[in-house]
Amino acid sequence: MGLTSAANGGGYGGFRLCVFDLRRGHSEGQELDKILFFYPADLPFSTQLSVIGLSEGLITFTRIFSPDAACEEIEAERHSHVFYEAEPDIWMVMVVEKSKGKEAIWRLDALRKVLKEVHSLFVMFHGSLRSLLEKDPSGGSLRSQLFIFIMDYLSDFLVSKKLHLPSFRDSLKERGTIQMLTIGREAALEVQSLVRLVESCTGSTSCHSLLMFQDLMVSTTFSPDDTVGLFVYAVQRLTPRVLSTGLSSWSYVRKGSASSASFLGTTAGGGGPLTEQFYGSYDSFPDENHTYRVRPLQHEKWFKGKDGFLVNDSWQSENDNLVPTSPTIFLQKSDERMFFCVYQYKNLTLIFTVPVSSIVNGEQGLSNVKQLILENASLKFSKVEEKLTKGWGGENAYHVSGYRYLLVDGDRNNSRASPLTKVATLSKESLLALNKLRQEVDLEKSRVRWEAARYDKDLEISIRAKNNAWVIARTCRGKELYMVLENANETVLYASDAVEKFSNRYCNGAFSLD
Amino acid sequence: MSSEERDVGEPESCPDCVRVGLDSLALNGREGEKEGDDLGNGSVEDGVGGTVEGLGVNGVVAGVGGGEIEEVWDRNLVDGRREREENRGGEIEEVGDGRLGDWYKARAGGWGEIEEVGDEKLGDEHRANSEGDVEGDSSASSSGYAAEREKGSSHSGRSSASEEIDDGEAAMAAWVPGKRHLDEDEASISWRKRKKHFFILSNSGKPIYSRYGDEHKLAGFSATLQAIISFVENGGDRVKSVRAGKHQVVFLVKGPIYLVCISCTEEPYESLRVQLELIYSQMILILTKSVNRCFEKNPKFDMTPLLGGTDVVFSSLIHSFSWNPATFLHAYTCLPLAYATRQAAGAVLQDIADSGVLFAILMCKHKVVSLVGAQKASLHPDDMLLLSNFVMSSESFRTSESFSPICLPRYNPMAFLYAYVHYLDVETYLMLLTTSSDAFYHLKDCRLRVEMVLLRSNVLSEIQRSLLDGGMHVEDLPIDPVPRSMSLLSQLSYQRIATPTESQESLREAFTGTGGPAGLWHFIYRSIYLDQYVASEFSPPINTPRQQKRLYRAYQKIYASMHDKGVGPHKTQFRRDENYVLLCWVTQDFELYAAFDPLADKALAIKTCNRICQWVKDVENEIFLLGASPFSW
Question: How far is B107 from B185, CA to CA, in rounded Å?
Fold first, then answer.
């Protein structure tokens, strides 16, 4: 069951995920010290060290030729290894097995985005790995936090005891981007005044907020990177859909798998030896010297209070372990701890943060702020909600008949795509061809990244695949458009007309030739 | 082979950075055994000398033996006798070894054996001999080796430049064959910045070949490569590639031989892998696959001496990876000739093919004039590429008639054939392949007969004319359907003399005035049934080597994209970037790759592609070798 059997029998398809620090474990006998996280944790340490040893070796080797960009990928016959340097000298490596079944076909950039996402979420709630290592040089508390956090995160990919990582079937999705709700001018003004009102209620100049309608973003005053992190988190754990069904819309693969039972629960619970192995060897069980243990990604921990504010009791006071406190997070580029508040009204979710230091009376001060918001903004919330609901086109609002598409705006970190139910109608061949094409574009993009002179690649590729589908990629001034047209005419002109029409109608002509 | 059998140890000459890697790999990093073990320093010098010699003067001939490969190895390895002959006058010299076949007696000068390069086991007498040769050669400096050496040092002088060093590109205009930058090793910054490295090593980590730098100095680096491969192998997997920034490392394991490419040229993995396959096959062409047996007998077997002097063959092959479409299309190309002319050449080749010649091939540079195979024998385009590369890169073949054992890896990787090679003029050469080791005199007679007929029927002068005229020029692409009677050759002269028709003129004016109609810059057409391709001549604006190489790479990329193993082959592809519009069309009969101005109009470009196909069909008699194809058996 769970992790133990997975590791022994390869139940998770030879999947490995590790986090290690190149600055640690240099002296003989101390090698284990470099391991910060390893999944599956019950693999023998020799095996863990060999995975990390290969990664380390190749990082060093590739730096001979490519000092600025060390190893990013290893492709072997049976496995792909994806590297991500999360923080200087702290690396995350994911190993996926290419099983004989054709489903295990990955786009490595998409897998790297998974690593990136889990790291940035971790940093948002706990701070950077390096800073935690500096606070506790034994690494014990970081290890326990990472373990719980990453295991909670991975549970989202778990479907009937199998990890379903983003595969070629997710070619028309872009992880780590925001999906926006398009709203009219009038609604936009309403939203703006609501946001101003809320922020003023906090009485802090460094209050930021993010407003969502269902799983779509309406407005934000956070920095772009923080916005992405908060949006991703909200979609995974906070939106009305998640709270009511326990399902995140992101991990749509989980639909149908009723249980959102904690991955960690089944694995760690059944795996006493695992925890022992993992922590025992480091003689510092986290709780002994670490005062609070936050599990922001644990499922079914958030619930809606009577006042409309969401509550999560996994945050505990630093002084008294038993008293829950309000959730806090770190924003990027600031070491300041922020109160993390979420208010929900029907389809609306409002996230706002206030510096802990700016609230005079701590918890009491914060509830005063909340009270103030309820008193002043309740009416506005219902008005905005009503307006947005009226204008909302439903699940298929962004479906364009005949097209299966993904539109990514790299500068604004947002994307829009055909609804998943529509993408699911595409044949496997088309999706495989698109996956391959996206890999090609990923390569071109990464080359541009390494070019000394940065310029945005203007690229247009239209491929008529073996199954007669058109698979199309366009990149232009930081925007990307991917498309699959099945049942289309065979000429290139047909395909480019289709793109042109789409571009003019839905992208303000961003990809039009004129 | 399990790694336990191999030596385990620290690479000796590995710089720190590499060693850190090895430590953490916990590798059975085997020592890159120092050449010194076998050769001693002096011999290393000799080795270099031998290479120089190979570069400058002669080509190389692999094994020598009465057709029996075992004998070759026995003689080379057990007997260990080394002979050297320097006989550039084309005079036939008898070399004293009773066991050699007659053909060996007939061996024309100019080529030495591989084994002779820098081996301590050489008698003093031989060593003196060999050094003498080196001196003689370097003073003659026909390869410009001396100059190269200077170049090398000047390179390291400016090695601090942050730019990647692209030899091929810099030197493309006047590409010099042979190995360069021998003074570099893994510690040199200039070496690390080279755009494309190729390595051959043995599975015990011994260096066999490196494109840049002296193999012997790269023992530590070689051991690192070996360690990576075997580390992954020990985990029950096989490493294919590693990507880091702009760099890609591609691995290929062929039994006891490991091949590695490290490149930042943006070529796709598939292309680099095919290049490694070709390098391996080139090695097999020289040695046959029987070389594996040496590793079976002795895992630490040092192969460098066997390949001594062949640097020039490999460097010329590697150079062709950046200009010769045959390397990725797996097809060959013909010299454009009037149908009757090619027929005449084919007829005389057929005559001699009936007399016990396995393959008779008449080529001009890398283009085929005609080729005939004995019944049921078929020649793979890759074998032709490697054979012609072998012949063209070895200077000795140019200077005299030669009879040399070669192996065609796709035909039979285990056995040697014997190639009689003779240049009929500066660019045109005849290759007669046989299985018989004592056919030299017979093939010489055949050649005389062929030469006579070719001269008498003016084939040779037609070849010269074709070389001057070139093949298809995009500017000549017929705008209006050309009358069927119009051949490429008459059209060529017609286009040159006559003023273009009005419609052509106006259409061309509409498009920047360079290249062909509708902004057409270049095309490649590959006939699937014939295994042949035709590429248009380069026209402005694709007129500098740098632009040609860039276009070549773009073709390579679109080829890889169209022929993806998992999802391909695709049917059509349109690709536009800042450099080109590329159109690719794959059908059951042909593949067309066409490059246009990046601003070209799509509809016109498509029309133009249709015209190209029609044009190729109209002149296929002249640009392809039709009928009597050895591939149709």
Answer: 37
